[in-house]
Design brief:
CATH class of the largest domain: Alpha Beta
Distance between the termini: 35 Å
Order of helices and strands: EHEHEEHEHEEHEHHHHH
CATH architecture of the largest domain: 3-Layer(aba) Sandwich
Largest sheet: 8 strands, mixed
CATH superfamily of the largest domain: NAD(P)-binding Rossmann-like Domain
Number of domains: 2
Oligomer: single chain
Radius of gyration: 22 Å
Shape: elongated
Strand order of the largest sheet: 3-2-1-4-5-6-7-8
Bound molecules: NADP nicotinamide-adenine-dinucleotide phosphate
Structural class: alpha/beta
Number of helices: 10
């Protein structure tokens, strides 16, 4: 449990991500139901959340928000400037703001929060919604070491989290691990196409591909080998893997992947609200 107890947490925006993190806090017993408030403006969604989260659900803020220690911003970036006005009267300088909003820099959030300094910027990814996500986070000097530990504990409820010392690495994480989910699905799409054209049913193709990926990931993570060493291990001279790789290399697949990820990084910088 936390050093400061009970730690009251508020989540602003109970959509896909906000509700996933909130559910993780409760499931992992990091926050007790009595210490968690989720603000969700959408009535239908609030009704759905009632069955998922046994915590306080509110449509709008009141003075209860001032008693929370951590406030998680989980609304869409484009509505944030309009939304935050209602919450501002109940936010004070001691509260720690944790933003999962894509493309919103610490200085941008600080500006919208009238110069608030205790802000952590996070970049989660899709699988946070099934507790298998990875989140990269950046905290400026105004956030203490204990607070960073607390944030990590909260973020780990939706998978794994890693702190970075340079905010630019949040844009890099946007490309590598957030857009990264999309890139993996792009590979799956093409792998599926090939498998089905070779005669497998969709169901069988999905099973084979998913297990091939998860098995390869496990092998890579649990052994002492680099991806390159493992690739060489399964590539015998004149064999089938070599034949496939030859086409990938001729068509520049590897380079395209590197360039694509760098393009996503560049775009993250362009879209970022500095
Ligand atoms: N989804 C991802 O994979 C992913 C990955 C990385 C980062 N993120 C970031 O995570 C954040 C949330 O994304 P999401 O996919 O969870 O979006 P979402 O499902 O649209 O959730 C946002 C929720 O906030 C609600 N909301 C709007 N105004 C509000 C207010 N004044 N008070 C309380 N709630 C309010 C929205 O209701 P209405 O729909 O009625 O407006 C919606 O239910 C975004 O900033 C996004 O950039 C998402």
């Amino acid at each position: 449990m936390f050093e400061r107890s009970p730690v009251k947490v508020a989540v602003i925006g109970g959509g896909n991500m906000g509700s996933a993190f909130a559910a993780g806090f409760l499931r992992e017993n990091i926050v007790s139901p009595a210490d968690l408030i989720v603000y969700e403006v959408n009535e239908d969604r609030r009704a759905n959340l009632k069955t998922l989260l046994n915590c306080e659900l509110r449509s709008a803020p009141g003075k209860e928000l001032s008693d929370t220690v951590i406030i998680i911003l989980a609304v869409k970036p484009q509505v944030f400037p309009d939304v935050i006005g209602d919450y501002m009267p109940f936010i004070n300088a001691d509260q720690l703001i944790v933003s999962i909003m894509a493309g919103c820099s610490v200085s941008y959030i600080s500006e919208k929060l009238n110069g608030h300094t205790k802000i952590v910027r996070c970049m989660p990814n899709l699988a946070a919604q099934i507790s298998e996500g990875v989140t990269v986070f950046f905290a400026p000097d105004a956030v203490s070491t204990d607070e960073k530990k607390l944030v990590k504990k909260l973020l780990d409820a939706a998978g794994e989290s890693y702190a970075v010392n340079n905010e630019d690495l949040i844009d890099a994480a946007t490309a590598v691990s957030s857009s990264g989910s999309g890139f993996v699905f792009y590979l799956f799409e093409h792998w599926m196409k090939a498998a089905c054209e070779l005669g497998f049913s969709e169901e069988m193709a999905q099973r084979l591909i998913a297990k091939t990926f998860s098995g390869a990931v496990k092998f890579w993570q649990e052994g002492d080998y680099t991806a390159e060493a493992l690739r060489k291990m399964v590539t015998s001279k004149g064999g089938t893997t070599e034949a496939g790789l030859k086409v990938f290399n001729q068509r520049g697949l590897g380079e395209s992947l590197v360039e694509g990820i760098k393009a996503a990084y560049k775009r993250a910088g362009e879209l970022s609200q500095k």
